[in-house]
Amino acid sequence: MIDWLTPQVFDLLVMANIALGLALAARRFARDLRLPLPDDAPVWARERYELPVQDPSSNSS
Question: What is the DSSP code string of 21-59?
Fold first, then answer.
């Protein structure tokens, strides 16, 4: 019935599954890095990762 499932084919299926999982995890990680911080992010994260707001009226030139 499943004579085609040799050890080599099984190994290939396992490696393909691992590769697919790593690709999906990398895609999700990259998407998470592009999203803004959530509202409940800690202060240290906001200070470190959000860009500072520049006031246009305080332009020194």
Answer: HHHHHHHHHHHHHHSPPPTT--HHHHHHHSPPPPPGGG-
**Residue 18 to residue 24: CA distance in whole angstroms:** 10
pLDDT tens-digit series, residues 10-39 = 999 999 999 999 999 999 999 988 888 888
Task: In whole angstroms, give the CA distance from residue 18 to residue 34.
Answer: 25
Q: What letter would DSSP give residue 5?
A: -
pTM above 0.70, yes or no: no
In the three-class reduction of DSSP (H, G, I as helix; E, B as strand; rest coil), residue 6 is classed as coil
